[in-house]
Amino acid sequence: MVTVGVLALQGGFAEHLSLLKRAADHISTGRGQQPVVHLAEVRTPEQLAACDALILPGGESTTLSLVAVQSGLLEPLREFVKVSKKPVWGTCAGLILLCEEASATKRGGQELIGGLDVKVHRNHFGRQLQSFVQDVDLPFLSRGKTEKQAPFPAVFIRAPVVDQMLHRADSPGRAIEILAKYPSNGEGDDIVALRQGNVFGTSFHPELTDDVRIHVWWLDQVIKALHDN
Ligand SMILES: NC(=O)CC[C@H](N)C(=O)O
After folding, report:
1. Is 207 among the catalytic positions?
2. Of 2, 57, 196, 208, which has the most beta carbons under 10 Å away?
3. What ipTM, to 2 d.p.?
4. How many CA atoms lie within 13 A of 54 on its CB side?
5. Residue ranges of the chain with pLDDT lower than 50?
């Protein structure tokens, strides 16, 4: 049994839990109905300690980091990601928290968890009113499948992009995989999905769609990673 937590301090945690539940049912059905995933909301260091993997939802990254500090969760989260190296996935504000550097807020910097050796540009596409849905090609969803997967309906809400790689002497062998760029066929630098070791991030919000494919893919990766360890 794998315990997957969703950080439930602020933002879209309920939506992630409902897609995770569908993804978990999907995986269990494929494995002879045995439930393999237990889901948990995470608000305290004790709840985090019980998790094998974690999702950081979208919301507002400055609020999320302030509440994480107040709840005594910031250091345990850093340990979870960078010392225990457990699988984590951040969406939108969650992705921002998982980057080593973020573009400054109006009032200055913010505490980050880190784990991805990149710099992220917050609110890259503008304000809430400039939110949009865009089909994005995600080739990683087609790996190991006989048919190419349809594009993913990616929901961008005050979304960040990763636009700078940071080269760190202390991270040899932790290659960054760029999993999707915006636009899908573009030559630009706007990375909207990436992975570095145990850390996966998307700029957009799969939990606000009805499309369970990324949740299924990630859960599968989590189960494989825990199996290999
Ligand atoms: N939808 C989102 O998660 C938006 C993230 C927000 N722009 C931030 O900086 O935290």
Report:
1. yes
2. 57
3. 0.95
4. 28
5. none
> Cα angle vertex 14, ends 162, 61, to 5°?
35
Q: Cα(215)–Cα(206) distance, rounded to whole angstroms?
A: 8
- Residue 26: CB atoms within 10 Å: 15
Q: Quick one: which atom of ligand 1 is closest to the CA of 62?
A: 10
Question: What does the pLDDT look like over 214-228, one tens digit per residue?
Answer: 999 999 999 999 887
Q: Residue 226: name the closest of 85, 82, 22 by CA.
A: 85
Quick check: 96 and 120 in contact, CB under 8 A? yes
Q: What is the pLDDT of residue 172?
A: 62
| Cβ neighbours around 87 below 10 Å, total | 26
Question: What number does the ligand 1 atom closest to the CA of 63 have?
Answer: 10
* Cβ burial 180-189 (10 Å sphere, 16+ → b, else e): bbbebeeeee
Residue 46's contacts (CB-CB under 8 Å, 6 or more residues apart) are none
Token pair listed for 142: 């087609």
92 is annotated as an active-site residue: yes
Q: Which two tokens stand for residue 214?
A: 């990324």
The two tokens of residue 44 are 């305290």
Task: Please tell me the pTM assigned to this model.
Answer: 0.94
Distance 58 CA to ligand 1 centre (A): 6
Integer Cα distance of 62 and 108 in angstroms:
11
- pLDDT score recorded for residue 128: 87
- Angstrom distance (rounded) from CA 95 to CA 91: 5
Domains and CATH numbers, the chain: 2-228 (3.40.50.880)
